[in-house]
Structures are given as C-alpha cells and as structure tokens.
Amino acid sequence: MRVNITVNGRPYEADDVWEGESLLYVLRERMGLPGSKNACEQGECGSCTVRLDGVPVCACLVAAGQAEGREVVTVEGLADHARQRSTHTAGAVRPGGPGAGRTGEPEVRPAEPEAIHSGEPGTGHPVEPEPSRPGQVAPLAPVQQAFIDAGAVQCGFCTPGLLVAADELLERTPDPSDADIREALSGNLCRCTGYEKILDAVRLAAARTGKAV
Amino acid sequence: MAADRTASAPAALTQATGATRGTIGESTLRPDGTLKVTGEFAYSSDLWHEDMLWGFTLRSPHAHAAIRSIDTAAALALPGVYAVMTHDDLPAETHYGLEIRDQPVLAKDRVRYHGEPVAIVAADHPETARRAAARIAVEYEELPLVVDEATATAPGAPLLHPGRRDHHAAHAPHPNIVHRQPVLRGDVAAARARADVVVRRDYEVGMQDQAFLGPESGLAVPAEDGGVDLYIATQWLHVDRDQLAPVLGLPADKVRLTLSGVGGAFGAREDLSMQAHACLLALRTGKPVKIVYNRYESFFGHVHRHPAKLTYEHGASRDGTLLYVQCRIVLDGGAYASSSPAVVGNAASLSIGPYVVENVDVEAIALYSNNPPCGAMRGFGAVQACFAYEAQMDAVAAELGLDPVEFRQRNAMSQGATMPTGQLVDSPAPVAELLRRVKALPMPPERAWEAAGGPVDVRALPGGLSNTTHGEAVVRGVGYAVGIKNVGFSEGFDDYSTARIRLEVIGGEPVALVHTAMAEVGQGGVTVHAQIARTELGVGRITIHPADTRVGSAGSTSASRQTYMTGGAVRHTCEAVREEVLRRGRERFGASHPAWAEPARLRLADGKVVTDGGEVIGDLAGILGDEAIDLEREFRHRPTEPFDLRTGQGFGHVQYSFCAHRAVVEVDTELGLVKVVELAAAQDVGKAINPLSVVGQIQGGSTQGLGLAVMEEIVVSADGARVRNPSFTDYLIPTILDTPAMPVEVLELADDNAPYGLRGVGEAPTLSSTPAVVAAIRAATGLPLKRVPVRPEHLTGT
Question: Where does the record place the region Disordered (chain B) (predicted)?
Fold first, then answer.
C-alpha cells in the first residue's frame, strides 16, 4: 500500500508498504530517518518515541497505515519543532545561548565509508526536495543541547526517544518537578547513565528556557 | 537527503576552534554528542547499502537435542530468498570462541542450548527472511539435560564437549567443568580452631543480562578482492577479525572491520553474535547483507552474566579481626566456554573482597551445562563474589555486635596489603576511607512522601503511581558495601593497545589525527583520547579517526581498561610525536636558541614549543611546514603472571579499583515492594581524566547493580533449560522511577604505575551496589535474603 505521512513538517510518501510494517520501520527503512531507534520494537523501551499529531507514541507500536495523513515529529525534526514553538512563544529560546559551551570539541567522522549510508531511503521519498542549507549549522533544541552539556548522553541509543519525550514534557510543563520528570520519562529505558544526568539535563533545559522568557 | 544530512554533520562539529581547551582533568563534552542528540549518529542497525539483503537466524527451540535432519527446500523456494545456509555450507573452520574454539558457527548434529543458531537466511525484506526461516524443517531428538553442578558431574552425565582438548581440559576435575581455580594461603583449620565467631551461609546470584539498548547488528559487504568489509558494533575489532577469518576461509587481511555506532555493550559484545553469519551470507550471495536482531533474539544472541551458587564461611575473633575465609563459588558457564576461564580466575582471586585475611581456602569453578552461554558482563566474576562476601561481613558484624561499617574498616586492606594470591597491593587502596565517605554523606529525609501535612505523594512510595500503599507498612533500611575489582586483562595475558597519531598543519593551524581501533561503546573513550592528545601535543584541533582494523589492535573495551590502555597508547604515541617535533625543530632552528639543545626542558603548548620557563622558542606550523608526522606505537601495562593452578598464588592483576556504596531503601512489607530512596557511591579513580564522564560511569554502574539486586534475571525453566523471559516486558531493567538520587564522591589517589595515575572506573561501581541495596532491605525487614534478585515473594514469604 501507499502511505502518506507528514514528517517533521514535510510530506512523504512510501510505496509497497506491507500491512504489517510499523511506523518505525517506514521511518527508518523507507524514509531514511533512522533517528528513531529500534531497541525493543515492542513498546517497552521508548527508544522510538515520536510525536503523532503532537502525542508521544512508540513508533514501533503504530502500524504505518495508522499514520496515514497525520503529522509526525521525530528527533530529526526536534530542533525545528522547538524553534517554531519559540517563535510562537515570544523569546522562549535564545539561539546560540545554550550552544556556547561547544568549543574545543574534537571532530568525529562517523563510520560511513563510500556507499554506506545511515538510513538511505528505500522506496519512500520526500514529495518536495529538501531546502538546501549550505554551511549552515542548525541550532539544537534546548533539550538537545542540555543533554550534551549535562553528560546525559553515553552510548546515546536511548537519547532520541528521551529527547522527544522530554521536549514534549517541557512544552506541557515548562518548570517540571523531579517527580514530573520521572513520570514523563518512565517509559524510556536507558542502560548507560543511571538517569541522574538525564534528570540534570531536563532541569537544565527547563532553567535555560525559563530564564530566557 | 541522507547524503545531505551526513554532509551537514561534520560542519556541526568543526565549528569548534583552536583554543587548547578540553585537556585532561576537564569535563570536556562528547565529540559525538551533537550527532547523537540529532539522530544523525550511525548505529550499526542504521546502516544501509544499495541492493542490500537482510539476514535472519533460525535458532533451536530445545536446550539439548540431536539434529536428525534439516530441510531447507521450502525456505529457498520462497520468492525474495537469496540464500539459506546450514552447517554443511560452511567454507572452512566451523567453530570459534574467545578462549576455546568450541562454539559452532551453525549447529551440526547437536544443539546445546535454547536459541543456538541452526541455519541462516538472506532475503530482500526482513519479514521475508523471517518467514523463510520458519519454513526450514529441522528434525530434533531431545537429549538429557545438564543444568547444574549435580547433573554436570553425576556418573554417566552427558558430556557437553566430549573429547575436549583445550588447554584447561587437562587439569579440569571433570569434562563438564570448564576451569577450576583454587586459592590457598595460610592455615584455615588452625584459624577455625581459634575463631570466636563462625558464620557459614549459602548464596545464589541469578543470571543477569547486559541488556544494552542497541541490538546486535551490522552490515557485511563483499569486496572485489574476494574479501569482506564488515561494519559492526563490537567491543574488540581485532579479536572479532581473528575469529572470523578462519571461519570464512579468508586470510586476515581480507577481513576488514570498521566500528559502527555501538548502543552499549557491558561485555555482551565480546563474543561474536551475527558477525560470521552476515559475512557468510554476503560472501555466498555476493551482496551486502545486514542483520539486526530484534529484542527477543538479542537475549539469545549474546552471553550473560554467570549465575552463581556460593558457599562462604567466615571466622573472626571477638575483637573483630577476620581470621579466615573459606569459600566455594560455582559459576554456570552454559553450553560454550566463552570467557568462563577468566571469569573463574577473577572470582577466585577477588573472592575475599578488599580485606586482609591471612588464612584463605577458595575454590571457584565454571560448569559446562545446557543453560545459555555465559561470559563477560561488567564486573566479570567479581560481582557474584561481592554479593556473598559483603553479606557475610554484615552477618559476622552482627554476630560480634559490631557496626557493619566499623567491622569492615577494621579489616580493610590498604596500600601494602597482601592479596590472598600473594600479590602486593602496591598502590593506594582507600577502602576504609571510601566507606567513611559514603557514611558521612547526609541522609535523605525520612518519609518524604508525607511531607508538609499535605496529601501523601504516592509517587515516592514503593509501588509508585500504582497506588499500592499510602505508607502504612513501609519501613526504611540502610546498607553498606564495598568491593574490589581488577583493571585490565590479567593472568599473564599480553594486553596491549595501539595508537596512530598524525600531526600536520592544515590551513596554517596544527591538527592532530588520532587513529585507534578502540571500540567506543558509549563510555567516552573518544572524549578522553582527544583530551590526552590535546594535553600532550598542545594542539587545539583534534580529529578522531573511525576505529577500524587498518590500525593495530586496541584490545577490548572491557575490564575497565580502555582509558588506561588506549589512553596510555595515545599518550605514548604523542610522546613519540613530540620527540620528532623537537628533533625537526632542533635541526632547523637549533642555532636560534640554546634551549633547543635540552629537549627535556621543552613542551608543546598552544601550538608552540615552550621552555619550562614559559619562553616560546618555535611554533608547530613553522617546524612542520607541509611535512606531517605520522607515527604508530604500542603500549603495554606491566606484565602479570598466571595464577598457580594448585595454590592460586601469583602476580595476576595489573591494578585494583575500589568503590563503596550506601543504599537507603523503603520496603512495603505487606506487598514486598522495594523503593531504593538513595544510592550513594564513593570511588577512587586515581585521576579523573574527565570528571563528568567518571560520575556518569559510576552512576550507570551503580544502576546495573541495583537492577541485579531487585529485578534483573533471565529465568531459565528448571524442566527444560528454556529461557522464559526474552523481552523487555519480562526481563526488567531499572527505569527512571526505579532509580534514586545517586550522590557520588570521587577520590583521586594516583596509582604511580598507571598513565596519569588513573584507575579504571567502569566496573567497580557495579560490584558493591547490589550487596548495599540488599543489606538495606535486610536492615528494613530482618530477613536473611541470600539470593538476588530479591523478589516480592522473598519479602512476603508467599
């Protein structure tokens, strides 16, 4: 079947989708958006958390057909999503402010030799070409920068799902208590960090965003 | 579109500029952080290649069975299927293994554990591959099971590996015992006669799983030279290659491995999983083949932590001096050896804990059985022992009427102590101090859930939002524990690491390229390598080359060894590069300043050559011109030796690390629910190269220990050795609701033998958190609790 989904604000269509394919599979393998992770594919770990019409869901538990005609936000679109939100909420984010700590970092070349790609689209493709961004570095969403700064990223496999969930929490509850954070992130497993630095990161994102208002 | 994304990634990273910030001792941020928070970081399951196929593995439903026949015709007939392979299709060697090559690539005439690979399929869609595998008809005949020590060593017991000829076989007391290591010192019988208090108890540790989040996965691409390129998530590229090449029938130089993004490891990626299968299918079909395990398969695809049965007897005098320890540790290694022999060596040599005991009688063994294969997991043999000896320390203290922390401190080892193996502890061993530190931390408030007279906050109670209690039957307990872990590979292993450094001037600015084969599995090695290179070379811009087999081996990302070993290799190589810089500078500019004649007085800083008085006498750009310096060097730690097979004596370990925990728990005694309120840690790290990462490692390790204490166990059915809970629905790991506040105290007492004085960090916190949590539950409930994980029924007696 053909599936049409708006992902991160852009319309996509994918052909020859099997009825049994999940939204996660279509995003990762057909649309070339592997940011949502495939850790359990049974709705237990939250690594594939995306927003479906604004609501956080495990993309692995959504049949691709269920997403027909709907809006999906993945980790790849989180920075844009936050930026759009901040333009609606006057002065909520200071571009470049949270990024000030990013100096002196070494460069890492991802392990992608010629012809090996991360999540090249299969049959799916964007309906409109992506606008080119030559040399432009997109600022991260506050919660993304806070995860880096607070040391909340180790292996990082849980990070995309946690970021989508945490960003949604901060959208709803700009100044969450620790109990609020724990409740909102209780569906996202992390095996590396012990969560303490993830709590730090969400607190940091909340504080930075709040300060700017 | 993907190309566009990858093109934008380096741009996001190179905005960092020349300042020499981020040297050792600073909390430099991860270089891969931006890629990881934007979803651009390429994990092994994200890889894609034009025209690639998907592989799938058919696994045994039985724990022990003879294979009578395999019929693959129906699978091959399915449209979209490109290859089906069984044992009969293997081109060369049929077995691999880390220490003993006893593990079949695909089972031949017998399966020895539930989930053993029997056949592999390549197809054009993952679902097609799965359906094809389901069409393979395998005729099994079930065989009698070996599930524990009694069934392994009973007369007439089925032998897991009849006719084994490995180097442990000769001295193993039974063919179903992989390895046995005693440790004997002093005179236990005489000490027992003098003891005022004797405590003898049995303990049991369940089978824990590493449960990393990124599933086993990789992409094998056949190459034009007849070889294969494998993009893989692993812990040790070179040892994978060395096992793969014979199995593929290829020379080592035609099997090239490149590390792709690794979503956690914790020991589970030390053994091969899908590596050989993907390469075999790629070579057979001539097409790239990707294999990605789902979570169910992942539980069968890697080794687990050895479950253990332990018997401990401690004797002490009335004044609180430990007189002797006698113990026996039985580790279940499952169907194949994996790293069981080394796990036995660790369990035996670290079995007494960080205490001074003159009289010791230890025996540790690992069994072959039809249970799932067990091998490396964070803590590696020291975890099981620590649970038992720390429970014993509490029990003996209670018998003596002593405070458990004070009793530990009286017997704590310190620098200059002798291990039960006879090895001198020749670097700081601040065991008593670590305990003092965790004990001195302020306690979390009591009954926080009923604060301020408002409604009870059930979120802070055992059971949480399931609203099982409002605090009626909730009691608090506090427990302490401390542990000792070795760092690096032991027992005479030639443990080395390699680094290649290229220093050149690009755009007028010196840049250092660091190339190692170290597996970055999340621990932050890439961060510390950059910090070390920046410190040693005084260069702001550092580029980390992808890890691959085109450079010498870095050894494994395990045994808490990579900052020590590959960090040491980076420093060692930087020193060689610096010498070369100074040699070239002396050649060209030696006449300009007398300090050039004294290289010992010179260092590199901010891209300049500087004297110890701070005078700049040259700059890298001028010295190097357009000629790069490109050097590769190996680094070794001081040599160790094997333990004597009869007495366990020997200088077996490179370095020890120590961590102490205090756990505060609240237990609902009616429902048997436990809430860990706080888990405080104190650890000596020698030198915190990156304090932020160090604390992250300690908290993460503590959480895995918490998991073992109260929830994590692979349940194997007693009747059939079948895994009952291969899913995140049924194998529980701690969530953010299960994990408490974790204050961390970091000590930095330098080990003079180690680079920068550092001490491996990753594993020690996993040891003591388990016994600390269980001690706290004992303190709350008064129950003996001799088994982990502690389950609700253990607390309610139901």
Answer: 1-27
Instruction: Tell me: pLDDT of B127 over 50.
Output: yes
Is residue A211's pLDDT more than 70?
no
How, if at all, do strands B289-292 and B322-332 pair? unpaired
Q: What radius of gyration do chain B's Cα atoms show?
A: 27
CB–CB of B706/B739 below 8 Å?
yes
* Residue from the list B10, B33, B696 with its beta carbon closest to the beta carbon of A109: B10
The answer to whether the CB of B736 falls within 8 A of the CB of B706 is no
With CB atoms and an 8 Å threshold, state whether A194 touches B703: yes
Side chain identity, residue B239: V
- For chain B, domain boundaries: 53-143+215-262+269-299, 496-636
Mean pLDDT throughout A142-157?
Answer: 98
Class for the domain spanning A142-211: mainly alpha
Question: A203: burial class by Cβ within 10 Å (0-12, 13-18, 19+)?
Answer: middle
Instruction: Give the DSSP letter string of B464-524.
Output: GGG---SSTTEEEEEEEEEEEEEES--TT---EEEEEEEEEEETTEEEEEEE--B--SSS-
Report, at the CATH architecture level, how domain B496-636 is classified. 2-Layer Sandwich (3.30)
Write the residue in B214, B292, B735 that is nearest to A186 by C-beta: B735
Look at A107 and B14 and tell me if their CB atoms are within 8 Å.
yes
Per-residue pLDDT tens digits for B715-748: 999 888 999 999 999 999 999 999 999 999 999 9
Least confident stretch, A34-38, B200-204, B456-460, B527-531: B456-460
Which residues of chain B make contact with A28, given a CB cutoff of 8 A? 46
Give the up-direction half-sphere exposure of residue B184: CA atoms within 13 A in the CB hemisphere. Answer: 8
Cα dihedral across residues B28, B34, B39, B45: positive or negative: negative
Q: Which of B276, B278, B258, B261 is nearest to B212 (CA)?
A: B261
* Per-residue model confidence as pLDDT tens digits over A97-117: 333 333 344 555 444 444 555
Rounded to a whole number, what is the distance in Å from the CA of A88 to chain B's nearest CA?
22
Chain B CB contacts of A158 under 8 Å are 213
How high is the pLDDT of residue B711? 98
User: Which of B210, B706, B735 has the alpha carbon at shortest distance from A188?
Assistant: B735
Which chain A residues are closer than 8 Å to B465 by Cβ? 183
Which CATH superfamily groups domain B53-143+215-262+269-299? Aldehyde oxidase/xanthine dehydrogenase, a/b hammerhead (3.90.1170.50)
**Cβ <8 Å between B735 and A119:** no
Q: Return the domain boundaries, chain A.
A: 3-74, 142-211
Task: Say which CATH class A3-74 falls into.
Answer: alpha beta
- Chain B residues in contact with A185 (beta carbon < 8 A): 736
- Give the closest-approach CA distance of B640 to chain A in angstroms: 31
- Residue B105 to residue B97: CA distance in whole angstroms: 10
Interchain CB distance below 8 Å, A132 and B4? yes
When CB atoms are compared, the residue of B19, B46, B696 closest to A34 is B46
Interface test with A, best of B6, B28, B41 (most A CBs within 10 A): B41
ipTM: 0.95
Rounded Cα distance between B364 and B390, Å, is 17
| CA A189 and chain centroid, separation | 15
Task: Judge whether residue B70 has pLDDT over 80.
Answer: yes
Tally C-beta pairs within 8 A across A and B. Answer: 311
Measured at the CA of B692, the angle between CA B540 and CA B661, to 5 degrees, comes to: 155
Whether A199 sits inside 8 A of B736 (CB atoms) is yes
Spell B386-402 as b/e; 16+ CB within 10 A means b. Answer: bbbbbbbbbbbbeebeb
Residue (of B384, B429, B428, B427) closest to B409 by Cα position = B429
